[in-house]
Amino acid sequence: MPVLLGIDIGGSGIKGNLVEPETGLLLAERFKVPTPQPSLPPDVANAVAEVASHFAYRGPIGCTFPAIVKGGVTWSAANVDTAWIGYDAAGLFGRVTGERITVINDADAAGMAEMAFGAGAGERGVVLVLTFGTGIGSALFSDGRLVPNTEFGHIELAGFRPVEQWAAARVRSDEDLTWEDWGRRVDRLLHHLEQVLSPDLFIIGGGVARRFAKFQDFLTVPVKTVAALLENEAGIVGAAMAAARSIR
């Protein structure tokens, strides 16, 4: 399998790297640009093209996107401009880069990478990967098979709909919460999801994964809960994996 470019589009940043999709190995230094504000399609597309150009890359590209994605079309707008709803993201990114593009939900991509090369490798049963950042992404797996486009960060809890407005990592920073206060919010979310899904494993991803020790003592949910091993690189790896699957 050739080296592929994975690009992870988030609410605050767009980052990419060259990836060996069969091993998850990153082959260069990550390159990141800010997500344009407002995050209108043409501006985001230009940022994607900038990332591709930085690596002087030619070939298939995998892109994550913080939205429900079906057939390359984005059907929601989680933490991006509502102009993306019903937009052919794959077609747009393909036009600006001149390459074949695969678009996948950002949390699904991170989950795929984590299940292949990280904390979920070899795990059976029901595994839920939650990514905490600007929002809360989710990727649900049953015996290693992805259930695509779950949006558990958008459920209602504690009077908030979506719950990511109460428990995302960005909220901890914006409200200057202690790790204990924020951890207890995450714990409440995990308890709710445990009651609904009966998972065998929770994997906590996103930027907070590297700080898992700061809040893990406040998680009381009776389900094994671990930090993602790929941390913030998971989306890039998963994007490349998605591109690889599209050309097999």
Task: Indicate the structural class.
Answer: alpha/beta
| Terminal-residue CA separation | 9 Å
String of helices and strands: EEEEHEEEEHEHEEEHHHEEH
What's the helix count? 7
Q: Average pLDDT across residues? A: 96
Tell me how many strands there are: 14
Residue share in helices?
A: 25-40%
Low-confidence sequence ranges = none
Describe the overall structure.
The protein has 248 residues and is an alpha/beta fold. It contains seven helices and 14 strands. It is globular.
Give the tags.
single chain; 248 residues; alpha/beta; six-stranded mixed sheet; five-stranded mixed sheet; 7 helices; 31% helix; globular
Q: Can you describe this structure in just a few lines?
A:
The protein is an alpha/beta fold and 248 residues long. The protein has helices at residues 41-54, 89-97, 106-117, 164-167, 169-174, 179-197, 234-246, and strands spanning 4-9, 13-20, 25-26, 31-34, 61-65, 69-70, 73-74, 87-88, 101-105, 126-132, 136-142, 145-147, 201-206, 225-227.
